[in-house]
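Q: Convert this sequence to structure tokens.
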Amino acid sequence: MKKNFYLYTFVFFFAFAVQQSFGQGCVAVKNMSSCSMNWGEEAKGFQFSMNYRYFRSFKHFVGTEEQVERVQNGTQVINNDNSINLGLSYTFNNRFSVSVIVPFVYIDRSSMYEHLGNSSPATPSANNPNYLRFHTQSQGIGDVRVIGYYNAMKDYTKGGLTLGFGFKAPTGNYNAKDYFHKKDGLLLQPVDQSINLVMVGLA
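A:
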């Protein structure tokens, strides 16, 4: 019992040791999936998991200052992220397991400044005086993850502390493309990095 107390105390202080943190730039959405592990003396076998996530991004920041006028004027960029994570786990015993997670992603991005030759994200140029909004999409498999888990608590009846280590395979399309509206027609080119299938497959 005393040993478990020291372990939980260490984990608690380690988790809250960070005094300052910074948010990531742009809208590089990270899909997260939890581990699944059978517990008990006879724990062994396969488990299937599935989770769905919807994420909508429409606010703009410069440093810590929010550009509220972008939403008020309707010039904001809007990302609608839909993702499904399919997972397959195998538990060897009540201490070791491994999981494979495959993300399927569909993201729609709408904006004004990426089309018709307009270069300003805040105000439309003469090429888009009517504030026309156009859409681009990316869809497909994100980066597949393989993770091994270890239950650090030998006696699972007294609590649990699961540690994981894994890697991410580069299966997502880093060069996903869609059509952009230009003055002389449609142009097929890479989508914005915020809806890149490699970025959204991160864990």
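The mean pLDDT is 79.
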